Amino acid sequence: MSMKLPFFKKKQTEQSDEQDPGSTPDHVAIIMDGNGRWAKKRGLPRIAGHREGVKAINRVVRAAAQSHVKVLTLYAFSTENWKRPASEVDFLMKLPKEFLHVYLPDLMENNVRIETIGDIQALPEYTQEAVTYAKEQTKDNNGLLLNFALNYGGRFEIIQAVKKLMTDLEHSANTIDSLDEKMFSDYLFTQGLTDPDLLIRSSGEQRLSNFLLWQLAYTELWFTDTYWPDFDENTFNAALLEYQQRKRRYGGI
Ligand SMILES: CC(C)Oc1ccc(CN(CCC(N)=O)C(=O)c2cnn(Cc3ccccc3)c2-c2ccc3sccc3c2)cc1
């Protein structure tokens, strides 16, 4: 399993849950929730909420790049995934192409690299093409890594990692004794990334919803009642400030 060390990989010490106090988080993960409720509150169709939600993504990407966050992992969570009307699913699967058409020049300008975790094979062909094109176009950028969790599930990710690991162990001289946290983390979709330092979830829910279950072991959790479409750089910076204050307190012990 060749391990391409990305430029920002921390030194190879065990991933401790310490950061220098009061610093900017290297890796921020966001559960983007609330598009539907935002639209409903305004008597708008749900797809208006998704359209505003994409604008919020662009605001947060710019704020993260300006704050020198290294990795931003976005999870477009919604429980209604399976009970959405076909028209909404159709809209959602066309939205990435529009998002990239509108924002890719801006992302290139800001030296943003796009990556994904999860099973993009499950997406429609035209959506996969848009994603693959965006990854290709941005692969040499070395600024913010913008990582989309697509058709992602934390427990599925752990099960597939165990299966791959067992298969590898069957065909190697290594025994299960060689397994440690570092080795296991290399079998996850987030291979090569440091764990999130800060998790943000919008719209008032305070649950992980099967997101990055292994990786969030030491992550600071920050929740806001703000619906995702209303999320902007001020909301993002409030989360960073709270993170820094928590880290200073920790550092103060
Ligand atoms: C590289 C990137 C541009 O490619 C992508 C390819 C496929 C998808 C669609 N998608 C994956 C399918 C799934 N359900 O997992 C979602 O995650 C999903 C579920 N709700 N919303 C609305 C929403 C919009 C904005 C914020 C939260 C939710 C989205 C959604 C749709 C279009 C866009 S554009 C940027 C993000 C985004 C999110 C996503 C990205």
From TrEMBL:
Residues 1-26 are annotated as: Disordered. Mg(2+) binds at residues 33, 220. The keyword Oxidoreductase does not apply. Its EC number is 2.5.1.-. InterPro entries: UPP_synth-like, UPP_synth-like_CS, UPP_synth-like_sf. It comes from the Bacteria. It is an enzyme of class 2 (transferase). Pfam families: Prenyltransf. The active site is at residues 33, 81. Its cofactor is Mg(2+). Substrate binds at residues 34-38, 46, 50, 78-80, 82, 84, 201, 207-209. Binds 2 magnesium ions per subunit. GO terms for molecular function: transferase activity. Keywords: Magnesium, Metal-binding, Transferase. Homodimer. PANTHER family: DEHYDRODOLICHYL DIPHOSPHATE SYNTHASE 2 (PTHR10291:SF0), DEHYDRODOLICHYL DIPHOSPHATE SYNTHASE FAMILY MEMBER (PTHR10291). Catalyzes the condensation of isopentenyl diphosphate (IPP) with allylic pyrophosphates generating different type of terpenoids. HAMAP family: ISPT. Belongs to the UPP synthase family. This is Isoprenyl transferase. It comes from Virgibacillus xinjiangensis.
